[in-house]
Amino acid sequence: MSKNRDDSPLPRFQQPRYGVDAPAFPATLGAVGAACCLAAGRWRSGRSATVTAGTVLLASTGIYLHTTLHGKLRIWRRELDQAGLKGDEQLLDLGCGRGAVLIEAARRLPTGHAVGVDLWSGKDQSGNRPEVTLANAAAAGVADRVEVRTADMTALPFADGSFDVVTSALAIHNIPSSEARYRAVDEAMRVLRPGGRLIVADFWPMARKYAAHIGQGTLRGLGPGYWYGGPWLGVTLLHAVKGR
Fold this sequence. Notes:
Elements (H helix, E strand, L loop, with lengths): L23 H17 L6 H36 L7 E5 L5 H8 L5 E6 L11 H10 L6 E5 L12 E7 L8 H14 E12 H11 L3 E4 L13 E7 L3
Parallel strand pairs: 1-2, 1-4, 2-3, 4-5
Antiparallel strand pairs: 5-7, 6-7
């Protein structure tokens, strides 16, 4: 059985398991929606509005769960297929979590290498631990080309120009201050080689700000498959190329 850096046995999965993004959010959304629907049966006044509110909240919960469990995975598979990877790239995934993007990228790098960095917050993703990411890589058959590191996106432990591609999925916005978020984007650009590509998916206001900060890049909405409850929490893809 594979081991982690502490030499303790890794979990063993038949298939990768990527967990739920920000698990407290859909749990709260669903609980409030259910409570509204139950309360409507007891109240006469405002019953219609309460039922409507409960229905909207439950529908939003369903959309959220579809995105985090299925939609984002399909979209990242499509985006990585369209990225034109040669297969020998050095790739860095910022805020890799349990490896959804990291592992899909590694599948496309038979002679390359994929490194994921994270601070492993369970608040941002359920069951977020490096040994789970490594177990997912083993289940996907790419453990030989995947590495995980505990590292802060705002101070990456890599030399300038270390990577051909830097990816990130719904991670940079978790950094509390705008100054630190921009520092993470700057770090991503620093570790890219000239001509390397930055591919970041984040909520649309954030993605716009990242593009404005670096003064370049194309922005494209990723559609309903990447809605966290509805279009008000839709995700945009930023694609930028580092100048030579």
